[in-house]
Give the backbone structure.
Amino acid sequence: MTSGKVLPADAHDETVQRFDVLVDAFVRVRDPEIMAAFLHDLCTTAELDAMGQRLQVARLVSETVPYQEISRRTGASTATVTRVAHWLRYGEGGYDVVLKRGRP
């Protein structure tokens, strides 16, 4: 959420609601060209790059490439590699599903 601040309960509810609406929007888009347009409209270039980098890191972690090598190949910090590896192993399984559906 925010930098260590505790948000009021209604702010959390609003965040959850926004997340749910965003997920619904992603699920409704099936055409790659429309998805690309939506992502470009929704995200900054830096956000798109960061998400793409995390997916690349997740693929390399799943291939058991050493963290330093992943950092070298992707330009991601070792902290980012460690964080992605944590969510790959202990998250909700989203990375696994995406990685199993094809090579990102």
User: Anything to note?
Assistant: The chain is about 75% helix and 0% strand. The chain has a mean pLDDT of 90.
